[in-house]
Automatic annotation (TrEMBL), chains A, B:
This is LacI family transcriptional regulator. SUPFAM superfamilies: lambda repressor-like DNA-binding domains, Periplasmic binding protein-like I. It comes from Cellulomonas soli. Residues 7-61 form the HTH lacI-type domain. InterPro entries: HTH_LacI, LacI/GalR-like_sensor, Lambda_DNA-bd_dom_sf, Peripla_BP_I. It holds the Pfam family LacI. Gene3D superfamilies: 3.40.50.2300, lambda repressor-like DNA-binding domains. One of its GO terms (molecular function) is transcription cis-regulatory region binding. Signal peptide: none annotated. SMART domains: HTH_LACI. Keywords: DNA-binding, Transcription, Transcription regulation. It comes from the Bacteria.
Length: 334, 334
DNA sequence: CTGTTAGCGCCTTCAG
DNA sequence: CTGAAGGCGCTAACAG
């Protein structure tokens, strides 16, 4: 009906011949409106296909009925989590809003604090932070972190058993006869990266293998940042026969770098990843990796947040879920 | 510094001993503030780690610098597109916001109109709609649709060659010797579903195979809605030897239903899907499917939207990208 | 039962 | 160069 731009509550009020307040009452089913008036207003609303502005409503009211998923970028790890998070939201009455903090590629530390400040108190009632770079201070709304920056002293969180997961990856390589095992680490700001390195070190030590510092590099969890260190590892005078890359994206990139150097995987180089994102099964050769239960992590994080939003105390504020080694085609006995 | 809840511009102004207006000017780099004052205000802002509320800012200003991706739910198809959309946004100066319209599971027709009305004009400067259920009227902001409801008369859009894609799937099955080929259709409100059915019908006709109406069912593109029709097809007195399910999720579910009925895939039943989402390579057996270039679709849709946002006219308002048959392990010669 | 009055947090004239 | 006033669209008191 109404052509130009947005239809506002004022337009509706004028068209219906009532005040703005009355329209608002009708929309929100508040008492004190004659049935006939309400009826009439409703029909005008339908006619004009009016929908109240989320922004204006949020600004005024406390509750918005929206949960924010704050992530650095839309990459496979985050989008897998999204599926689990979304599944757990169904039927809760909350809408889901995924917000890419812009910090993105540069990995600007603090993106989650900025994003949270921009959205909390106004647009969202609660938030799930995916791989935050720091412990966020009280944001005034319930917050749950997935794969967080720090340990158990901080915000409620869900992660998987990174230590045991890394150990299983390295044990697998050792069992295949590998002794020179390269390590491509993750984002130093994340606890997961620290624990995966710790798992690597301990497992080598337990097997009586001396750690060669030359074989330990920082990959940053992203293809672009993993490229150079992977290349360095593979062009060492005495290169590793296997590499444990601590997430799938960097593992896949490592395989590509190896192939570009004329190395065959797994004949000349074994590679193990971490995460088990769908992409790990789509590359050639298919990647051996440590599986994290990503959907379940998302689901449990959302359940924790919903509990918090209900004003209840969650059974546990830190959930740690098990990992599992998935052996595919990128590893092979020496 | 400031403990309780959000820090507002008023808090900053008070702490800095200036007016709200001055703080606003500093934030937005507007003329008319003494260098020393600006400096001071900036330091207070940093101290209090103040961040202006997206909501309040949006309400007041025209431009928000945010692009909305509106989707019915976070399932594999949408999240794959998200990766491409996000990649194309990098460096554009826009932030990305993915909004799940709530209509979700029930597939409530019109979710995108509602979502758009709620967000446009206030929160987002432009939008990409994923599988909208109808042609959206002028929303006052640029809108691009992916896999749209209707044909070329409507909004700018990007999709893939559904007709040719469906044909390639059915031709593949015919080449394998199949004659009784079941069809599990998609969402009737989408053009893609119509075109895929058309491709199925034409290809059968071209091969001189009479169409058995009993073999044509509506699967709705979702696992839950595909379950029953798949079951019906497989328990027919004269069941099909192959099924073309028009998206991967329903194809995967079809394989599960078959297995639950004691049928082996591909020995007893061949199955072809559509989309080539990552999940299609993760199931057992791996799914033969028609690949859509999902990342590229997302990228091109975003580029089109960015062009529109710049106020320019896009080279073409309807992009149709090629599909490709990916033969894996779920199909076999009769 | 209805309309008027105040803001939510912010930005933008427009006086001082 | 700075602050006071008005209003974005909406909801929540309070009067009438």
């Amino acid at each position: 009906m109404e052509p130009r731009g947005r239809v506002t509550i004022t337009d509706v009020a004028r068209a219906a011949g009532v005040s703005v307040a009355t329209v608002s009452k009708v929309i929100n089913d508040r008492y004190g409106v004659a049935a006939s008036t309400a009826e009439h207003v409703r029909s005008v609303i339908a006619d004009m296909s009016y929908e109240s502005s989320l922004v204006a409503r949020s600004l005024r009211s406390q509750r918005t009925g929206v949960i924010g998923i704050l992530l650095a970028e839309f990459e496979p790890f985050s989008t897998e989590l999204l599926k689990g998070l979304a599944a757990a939201t169904a039927g809760s009455g909350y809408e889901l809003l995924a917000w890419s903090g812009g910090g993105g590629p540069d990995g600007h530390v603090g993106w989650e604090r900025r994003s949270l400040a921009q959205l909390s108190g106004t647009l969202i009632d609660g938030a799930v932070l995916i791989t935050p770079t720091l412990v966020v201070p009280d944001a005034g709304i319930p917050v749950v972190a997935i794969d967080p920056h720090a340990g158990s002293e901080s915000n409620p969180s869900v992660d998987s058993d990174n230590l045991a997961g890394a150990a299983s990856a390295v044990e697998h390589l050792i069992a295949l006869g590998h002794r020179r095992i390269g390590f491509l680490g993750g984002r130093p700001d994340l606890e997961s990266a620290r624990l995966r390195e710790e798992g690597y070190r301990r497992t080598l030590a337990a097997a009586g293998i001396a750690l060669d510092p030359d074989l330990v590099r920082v990959g940053g969890y992203r293809p672009e940042t993993a490229d150079a260190p992977a290349h360095e590892l593979l062009t060492l005078p005495d290169p590793p026969t296997a590499i444990f890359a601590t997430n799938d994206l960097s593992a896949i990139r490592t395989m590509q770098v190896a192939q570009s150097l004329g190395l065959r995987v797994p004949e000349d180089l074994s590679v193990v990843g971490f995460d088990n994102v769908p992409e790990s099964a789509l590359c050639t050769p298919q990647l051996t990796t440590v599986s994290q239960p990503l959907h379940r992590i998302g689901r449990e994080a959302m359940e924790m947040l919903l509990t918090l939003l209900r004003g209840e105390a969650p059974a546990e504020t830190h959930r740690r879920l098990p990992t599992e080694l998935v052996v595919r085609a990128s590893t092979r006995a020496l």
